[in-house]
Amino acid sequence: MDRSPSESGDLPRALALTLASALAWGVAHLVTGRRLTGGLLLGLYLALVAAAVAVATVFRSDLDHLAVRPDALQRIAGGLVLLGLVWIAVVVRSYQVVRPAGLSVSGRALGAGSVAVICFAVAVPTAWSAHTTYVYRDALTSIFRTGNENGRQIDAADPWDGQPRVNILLLGGDAAANREGVRTDSMTLASVDTKTGDTVLLSLPRNLEGFQLPPGPARDRFPYGFTGDGPETPGLLNEVYQYAEEHPDVVPGVAKNHRGPTLLKDTIAGILGMRVDYYILVDMFGFADIIDAMGGVKIKITQPIPYGRQGGVLQPGERTLKGKEALWYGRSRTDSDDYVRMGRQKCLMRAIAQQADPQTVITKFDKLASAAKRTLSTDLPQELLPALLKLSGKVKDGAQIDSLQFVPPLISTGSPDFALIRRLAAKAVEDNGASPSPSASASPSPSASPTGDGSLARPTPRSATRSPAPQTKPVSLESTCPS
Q1: Domain Cell envelope-related transcriptional attenuator: where (predicted)?
Q2: CA-CA distance, 248 to 259, in Å (whole number)?
């Protein structure tokens, strides 16, 4: 027989049972003899706990795939809201079941206040989880469009369409308040083996000249190579993106904000002699926001780097750089050139990728998502994200990453040998993963580095000539960044 509320004990005991019911549904009902309801609540609670444990362990890989599916994220956010509401209802009803009869006004107020605190403690984590899931989904859908929107159909069974490698163009955009448009001062094609994750990074300098635009209206306008649009644009590779945005007739039928990446992808494909599948553009100024959201980035500085306009200097040594400091580290031209900057930028991105651990992402998630929406643009379709996530795991778990920069003295930026560029690019991709890269502990001699930053160098024998020879083979990214 069910006991009456007056038989359930005094207020402290009632609150203790309510708290116990918040931690394990059904306790208050079972204590008061409501075995059926209590058993159902406890069974449901245990089933939810078992499901959470199974997802976090047995089905963890499936969870990773769900994390890049906006439709699944929407259902998860809705489920978390429902869970929170049910949990609060269980707490309130549990207190009603065990609440003593004949409480004074102060006793009723104390009991209601205590239950409200318990409900608040339940609501906060579930509401935070639902909010975070929604923010993540919003960022995902803002940055990555569907395949239909991008004009691509992705086969879930074969997302790479049978291709042994996927080639993604990584762009660093130089937008600023005092300049119109975007200049792509950093251009690197990442060619990734779709089975092993082995990657080769092929970097082109911003000041490359004399290149052909792709066949069609663009080539018709510049039949002898791109020459820019007036004295302010001398015809450098970093001008192609903005030129296309300002001249829609050279890429007919392509929408605004897509013309630049389309023409630049096709142009670089012609320069390197290989397909460019997708692009990712990072606004370098917005990139500082991502670093600040992470709490800074740790990096080893090997020589003093002027910082800011007030005569500041980033001193050598292990440093934790804030967003603006990291931007100066990657972009400073003082006592260096474009090619040294290219090497520093690669090392900066490598450091950020290594330090973006799960704890940092979780604790700084809102700021990171907001910064990413302002900073990133891409034509990678949402449907490709599960396969890309799996591939990135292989890259992070020890895949070989090599880097080759097409900079002097390997090439002349004013009069490049494009046949040589295409030949070396093809050879670099062919050799990627075929043999071990130089050890990360290798210390190239100064004479081995044509750019002064070691980004193209391998150790050379002391008997070799003092004149730096052009580096024609890629080297391990690990060996080029100080650690």
Answers
A1: 183-356
A2: 7
